[in-house]
Design goal:
four-stranded mixed sheet; 3 helices
Length: 102
Amino acid sequence: MTPEGKVKKRVSKILKEYGAYYFSPVTGGFGRSGVPDIVACYQGVFIGIECKAGDNKLTALQLKNLEDIHTNGGWGMIVNEETAGDVKAVLLYIKYLREKIK
């Protein structure tokens, strides 16, 4: 498994643990380039997660997609080996916000 694959696996495990809907889009062929590695929805919040490993940086197209998600009310995240656990914090925060506005 690639280092980025390990990050994706860790993020997917967290999303599954919290019952989020998520998938990894296929971008080759007929897919759209720059789409985040993992697309999720948790308690009505759209989340795009770009996973990176090592010194890998976002491409301009990946950044644009995350900005477009944010502009449209979703949450865009960039995670790596050290910050993959932040996905759990974001899900807990979304849950807190949803409970607060009930």
